[in-house]
Amino acid sequence: MKGIDVSHHNTVDWEAAKQAGLKFAMLRCGYGSDLKEQDDRNFEANVEACDRLGIPWGAYLYSYALNTENAKSELAHLLRLLKGKKPLFPVAIDMEDGDGYKEKHGMPSRQTLTDIIRTVCAGLQEAGYLAAYYVNKDWYNRMIYPEQLSEYVFWYARPGVEKPDEACALWQNEIMSTGGEWPGVETDGKNGSDTDISFQDFPTLVKNKGLNGWKIENPVSIDTTMDVHKARGQWYGVKCSAADPSKIELYAGTPDIVTVIPVRRTQTEQFFLVVPIGQPGQSTGIWTRYGGAEDTAARRFVFWIS
Q1: By three-state DSSP, how is residue 217 classified?
Q2: 2-209: what fold?
């Protein structure tokens, strides 16, 4: 899956970029601490264009943090700019020192740099985002401890080689100086851009796990959403629908209160009888699950024995 990463340094004709086969974009939202003047001035317009054209996007923030307190402000910066938006790619902290700021102000230790990344990524994760970090080969080998960051998506800056030499989910495979270019994209008025390759289907992952502001779409539809009250022995019929009805499970949270019996199936529907077997006043949640996958389990209504 081929993409680009852009900031206010780039002018993008998004229609032309999409027509050329663009599958995703990583958009810089800003840099450094949570100050409005440090927002990327093109971020909002880039998000609007990607959403309008159906181009999946992720976001990144260029880090100037020298300690974990600075990192907390950078996390707040990301969360402020992401509010109300629904990226389908990871949200990343960009760790490098392209302008020499960290070196001039006292380069943090290897452990502190790792802690800065972890502070931002853990905060993103806690807020429900798919968190990532971006470093180049030198930083990966010398400046951070990547083994402490294994739970986060690794976006590897390794341009100008045939394939990445470290395992990564996102790979920045070219930059302008190594010949990176994409139709419709200019950098500081010249043809050229950073290009990236994704080795993972992030849109599917994000939607399936309900990350980045997306709600999990339950694969099972059900005709009952209100609580049900029935006397002991008085059955109640439930109709469920799904792409493959043979994978639908309807079950009671407490099976000794009601029993659930599958009775009839069509090409798209499965019918069940819910029969109360417990005592008056007892209740239990009625759940659906699809294909045995626990991440599809959801309580749909409560059954009361009257």
Answers
A1: coil
A2: TIM Barrel (3.20.20)
